[in-house]
Amino acid sequence: MRAAGRVVAEMHESIRAAIRPGVSTLALDRIGRDVIERRGATSNFLGYHGFPAVICASPNDVIVHGIPDDTVLVDGDIISIDCGAVVEGWHGDAAFTAGVGEISEEAARLLVVTEKSLYAGIAAMVEGNRIGDIGAAVQDVAESAGFTIVEEYVGHGIGRAMHESPEVPNYGIPGKGGKLHRGMTLAIEPMVNAGSAETFLNEDGWTVVTADRALSAHFEHTIVIGDNGPEILTRP
Ligand code: MG
Ligand code: MG
């Protein structure tokens, strides 16, 4: 899983470096494909229930699962990139949201808070804690900043498949839910909205948007509970 995580981290780095006004989300997908090919990995996104790309590209009010197309990013956009890779049957999965050019103060704050909520969740991923401790930590950071947590889409176990049990909601009650143990590998992935938490699925059957069209951000890492606590496998 470390090898898969490194490929995902390299995809993130290459794609992040290409994000600028004028680039299309399809061009970003091409960059992801190139990294996967170069590393001899395979994509766990391409063909997933028929998904047509190796990344999800979700601009502005798109929460998750946006399909790359010839949409061109413009100054002031935010763009969420979610992607994964498989190496020798082991999966990695991670996401980040970046600003395009100059973004508003509120958009910048949404990105900072959402990433911070991910790291709060990761810090709670220690042996003896429970799934609810992760969700509660994420939720506390996001909601105390005045943002809302998407509840319909959640983090997950990951290993020989991209999505394994348990589900890892981005909300929860401390001390509740399944116990965390050493060696466990989870993908924690807060989706945080600037407006209401309500979601809407577009006609394409994939693209999930905020019902009120407010901005949404998404950060994710694949993490293992190692001997010295949580270890991020998809960090660039
Ligand atoms: Mg995931
Ligand atoms: Mg993901």
Automatic annotation (TrEMBL):
Residues 1-226 form the Peptidase M24 domain. InterPro entries: Creatinase/aminopeptidase-like (IPR036005), Pept_M24 (IPR000994), Pept_M24_MAP (IPR001714), Pept_M24A_MAP1 (IPR002467). GO terms for biological process: proteolysis. PROSITE patterns: MAP_1. This is Unannotated protein. The keyword Protease applies. Keywords: Aminopeptidase, Hydrolase, Metal-binding, Protease. Transmembrane segments: none annotated. The keyword Lipid biosynthesis does not apply. GO terms for molecular function: metal ion binding; metalloaminopeptidase activity. GO terms for cellular component: cytosol.
